[in-house]
Structures are given as structure tokens and as C-alpha cells.
């Protein structure tokens, strides 16, 4: 995916326009209309409309969260491989000590700063956001959604 601007901490979050600005608003409005109909015309069908739209909302969120979970697993694997290549032998023990959140945060660190930042992340028990804030040379990830 080509970059429209240089990625950094301030702008690395992304929106999926179809999901965030179409699917979610349509489902939210439909849920509200279903509740409104049930209040003004109570009955099994209007109640079932609320149940159905709620199920579709849950489905939309679960599909999104499951896709993000898979991406996190791939990032975790990629970063472990990257660390194995970049860390000197004396630091490779750190790979197993990094949490999933730490590995995901480290993906943005440049190759040059990765060894020192990985060591700091383990010794200081840094969070994902702390790691991201500590990065001096941002390595963009334009494929994350």
C-alpha cells in the first residue's frame, strides 16, 4: 500500500472507511430504528428485529477483532524472526521474554534502535504505547488495518 504521508506515532492508527464510516453507522442507525419500532409497535417481529440487528453488530465487531488478532499473531512471528536476525547472540534470550504487546510495539522501531529498545522493553516492562513513544526512527507499517 503506498504511503500518502510519512507514518509516525501521531498518525499510525488507521480507519477502514467502509467499516468505520459505512457498516458501523448503518448498523447503529438500524439498531436504533429497531428499538424505536419495538417501543411504538411492541410485538415478536419488532423484538426479533432488535435481536437480529444486535447479532449482526456483534458479528461485525467479532469479524474485525478476529482479523486484528490474526494480524497481531503474524506481527509477533515477524518480529521474533527480525529480532533473531538483528540481536547479537548475547541478547537473543530477550526474544522469549518480550510480551505480545511489546513485540507489536517494537515493529515500528528501526533496525538500528531495535536491540537497545528490546532490552529496555524487557528490563523496564514497557507497554506497547511506551515503546512506540520511545521510538526515534519510525519504521512504518502501512499494511495494518
Which residue ranges are poorly predicted, with pLDDT under 50 across at least 5 consecutive positions? none
* Mean of all residue-level pLDDT scores: 91
Assembly classification: single chain
Give the H and E element order.
HHHHH
Q: What is the approximate shape?
A: elongated
The total count of helices amounts to 5
Overall strand count: 0
Report the span from N to C terminus.
Answer: 11 Å
Helix-strand makeup class: mainly alpha
Share in β-strands: under 5%
Helix share, percent = 55-70%
> Whole-number radius of gyration?
21 Å
Strand count, sense and barrel status of the largest sheet are: none
> What is the number of independent domains?
1
Labels describing this entry:
mainly alpha, 5 helices, 63% helix
What does this structure look like?
The protein is an all-alpha fold and 145 residues long. The chain has one domain (16-134). It has 5 helices and no strands. It has helices at 17-40, 44-86, 100-106, 114-124, 128-134. It is elongated. The mean pLDDT is 91.
Amino acid at each position: 500500500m503506498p504511503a500518502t504521508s510519512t507514518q509516525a506515532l501521531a498518525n499510525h492508527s488507521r480507519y477502514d472507511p467502509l467499516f468505520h464510516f459505512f457498516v458501523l453507522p448503518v448498523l447503529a442507525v438500524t439498531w436504533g430504528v429497531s428499538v424505536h419500532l419495538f417501543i411504538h409497535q411492541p410485538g415478536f417481529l419488532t423484538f426479533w428485529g432488535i435481536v437480529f440487528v444486535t447479532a449482526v453488530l456483534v458479528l461485525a465487531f467479532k469479524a474485525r477483532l478476529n482479523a486484528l488478532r490474526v494480524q497481531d499473531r503474524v506481527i509477533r512471528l515477524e518480529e521474533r524472526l527480525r529480532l533473531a536476525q538483528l540481536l547479537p547472540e548475547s541478547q537473543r534470550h530477550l526474544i522469549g521474554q518480550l510480551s505480545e504487546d511489546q513485540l507489536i510495539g517494537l515493529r515500528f522501531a528501526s533496525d538500528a534502535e531495535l536491540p537497545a529498545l528490546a532490552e529496555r522493553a524487557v528490563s523496564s516492562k514497557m507497554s506497547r504505547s511506551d515503546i512506540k513513544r520511545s521510538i526515534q526512527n519510525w519504521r512504518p507499517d502501512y499494511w495494518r488495518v
